[in-house]
Amino acid sequence: MGYILKLYITGQTANSVRAMENLKEICKELVKDYELRIIDILKEPQLAEDDKIIATPTLVKELPPPLRKIIGDLSNTEKVLLGLDLVRKQEA
Amino acid sequence: MSELYDVNVGEQLPKLATGILGFDDISAGGLPQGRATLLTGSSGSCKTLFSVQFLYESITKYNEGAVFITLEETPAEIIKNVKSFGWDLRSLVDTNKLAFVDASPEPGETSAVVGEYDFSALLARIEHAAKKVNATRVAIDSLSAIFSQFSDSRHVRNELFRVTAGLKKMGLTSIITAERSQEYGDISRYGVEEFVSDNVIVLRNVAEAERRRRTVEVLKFRGAGHQKGEYPFTLTGNGIEVLPLSGLELTMPSSDVRISAGNQDLDRMCGGGFFRDSIIMASGATGTGKTLLVTTFLNDGCMKGEKTLVYAFEESRDQLLRNARGWGMDFSKWEKDGLLKIVCSYPEVRSLPDHLLSMKAQIEEFKPKRIALDSLSAMERVSVGKSFSEFVIGITSFIKHKETAGLFTVVPTSMQSVTSVSESHISSLTDSIILLRYVELMGQMRRGLTVLKMRGSAHEKEIREFTINDKGMQIGDQFHNVGGILAGAPMHIISGESDKLSGMFVK
Known about the structure:
The structure holds 2 protein chains of 2 kinds.
Chain A: E1 3-9, H1 14-28, E2 34-40, H2 45-51, E3 58-63, E4 68-71, H3 77-84
Parallel strand pairs in A: 1-2
Antiparallel strand pairs in A: 1-3, 3-4
Chain B: E1 15-16, H1 23-26, E2 31-32, E3 36-41, H2 47-62, E4 65-70, H3 75-81, H4 89-94, E5 98-102, E6 111-113, H5 120-133, E7 135-141, H6 143-149, H7 153-169, E8 173-179, E9 199-208, E10 211-221, E11 230-236, E12 239-242, E13 258-259, H8 264-269, E14 274-275, E15 279-284, H9 290-303, E16 308-312, H10 317-326, H11 331-336, E17 340-344, H12 352-366, E18 370-374, H13 376-381, H14 387-401, E19 405-410, H15 421-426, E20 432-441, E21 444-454, E22 464-469, E23 472-478, E24 482-483, E25 491-492, H16 495-504
Parallel strand pairs in B: 3-8, 3-9, 4-5, 4-7, 7-8, 15-19, 15-20, 16-17, 16-18, 18-19
Antiparallel strand pairs in B: 1-2, 9-10, 10-11, 11-12, 13-14, 20-21, 21-22, 22-23, 24-25
């Protein structure tokens, strides 16, 4: 089973752009397939309700369980991987 | 002249009525419109209820949409908690009048912070919700919860500042709650007040003498007026009700109509009876005939077909009926006819603000023309701090507005003493004062009565003797050759001496 990731942003702010770039790099290292959805809260506010997002950017790992959230521009790859229980290619 | 002084003094920021009973009086019209107001209080001080009520009244009284941003409890919990007040939030949500922004922490969910972030998401969600229900008012409850989710409180403070600035930009009038750790001391934890410091309201829940006393204080409204100091509030079936006691205005109508005290001699002493809308205080030690005075006063009302209401805090209903029977008055008949209502309870059953509210409700419902309270001193027993004088002011002004006569009895602190604590509180609020005193003369205890004060009317100045028999109170002659009765030390004056005294004033 692959990963399902959602990245919440609010418009094209500096934080949003940095988070998207950082996430792209991180995803390159993932061992499994992944599905990434980028949600702009300004355009789709209702989606943020369901995940109770208050800060952006926020990365949500929906699958596999448990659900994990990482708040911030994801500038530290190690911490992101650790926080999401993601596994790197090299380690697999 | 310098431009610094060029300010329109009379101009005040517009206020938005909250609809919370009494609060709009003490805040001189409600919350400053289009601004954020910080509502702080320790845990259990009704912050959440206050904010929910603010929104609920907004929708139901003023037909304006509202948004509740919850950072602590889930919307489901809030909906459930306020159901007991008869507030159906669920249907308000379904009809697009109320919107929740749920930012409550998910149990067991951990979120890590990696790198820079901001709260634009929260602001975007509030904006979205506000648009959906066409909101004018929002409440954020409570900010302290958000600080526990993020470790860098300085950054959180800055971000929250942006959020409140955003609310202002949208023209929303908002309540933002924050926890404080002590009842008196720092305004709030985490220094929240620093970014919403324009307006601050403090809710308190203070334990005094083993009783809880809830108060609300408008600490500041920048650029707008308000009443100062703490005002008691209480929880009723309709939510929060503030008692704007000291904020009352003396605007009662005044009546010239006289009513009888049920005793012709006493009426004569008062210059023709009590005024229709007056507050009469009867002060006397135990056994001097206060309850008799109350009984005849009520009986006279019933005989004239007026509704009467009596609060007995020292005697039971049966005792009252028996006493009345002993003086030849049939109270059970009046009760059956619906002219008399007897409310007996111990003052201890509830706090004074609650007593005041329930009495107001009963008076409103029964619409009596005469009210007796026997005795006010019993209420003093359960009072805390300023609550007794607040109670007396509250009940007297309420009764007067209803154009109802009120007879309150008070007991002086000792058998002989003239004043009591309650008298000093209320004597200036009452229109008439009747003193009942024991007079010890020649080895006998006799009773004396005098009218000390009749506002707006002449009255007799004599101290008369009275006796009590099976017909009630019999007022006799003035005490001759006795002095010092009111001072509590009656002295027989030898007749030669009194002749000399009266001679002193003969020209």
